Amino acid sequence: MYQSLYSIVTDKLKLSDHYYDRLIEVSEQRFFTNKEYLLQIGKTCSFIGFVEKGYLRSFREKDGEEFISDFYVPGTFITSYRSFINQESSAGAIQSLENSEICWLSFDTYNLLLNESSEWFKLGKYISDTLFIKKCMKETSLLMDSALDRYKLLLQTYPHLEQHVAQYHIASYLGIKPESLSRIKSLNLGH
Question: In degrees rounded to 5, what are phi and psi of residue 2?
Fold first, then answer.
């Protein structure tokens, strides 16, 4: 049983166990090894996943340099949402940073559920709201916060991330160089 997903479906969305059972019935359990891609740049995202185990990242590339746009940790949804919704090419890639387990819901199955019952729109709204809020928080932080404050927000948002993710990935997410992250960490002694 995916305990975190069960809690979202039954506690947060107030749906019955039947909905959780149906979701598991139509989903796939997929495993990804370290550095394996769930989605390549330019491909269409055909899934919404729920991270049961593992740490993953989404990133874009420009002039051969990678820019991390997000991390996905256990208990979170993972997708390239614009690509998924519009069924268009993704500007970014999604890659596993360690062995990961994902509860995988395909585009077709997601739409099948929405057509089965209007109750499934609660799940769709929860996923879109969660992804939107996450995006807004990062965007606001990048525009308004110092690198130190962005780092503190990252630690608050993803408490165990540093044990699972390379420092240069964290620096990329924060929009700074790895040397700058080292300086910030030495200043942030209270962490």
Answer: -85, 95
How many Cβ atoms sit within 10 Å of the Cβ of residue 24?
16
- Residue 81 corresponds to which amino acid? Y
Alpha-helical regions (H) of the chain: 3-7, 17-26, 81-86, 107-116, 120-144, 147-157, 167-174, 178-187
188: helix, coil or strand?
Answer: coil
Sheet of strand 65-72: strand arrangement? 37-39, 93-96, 56-62, 65-72
| Mean pLDDT, rounded, for 134-139 | 92
* Res. 64 pLDDT band, cuts 50 70 90: confident
Report the pLDDT value the prediction gives residue 2, as an integer from 0 to 100.
Answer: 85
Helix (H) or strand (E) holding 51: strand 47-53
Strand bridging mode 56-62 / 47-53: unpaired
Q: Which residues pair with 77 in a beta bridge?
A: 50
| pLDDT tens column, 84-120 | 999 999 999 999 999 999 999 999 999 999 999 999 9
Residue spans per domain, the chain: 3-144
pTM: 0.91
- Angle formed at CA 39 by CA 37 and CA 40, multiple of 5 degrees: 90
Burial label, 123 (beta-carbon count in 10 A; 0-12, 13-18, 19+): buried
Which CATH class for the 3-144 domain?
Answer: mainly beta
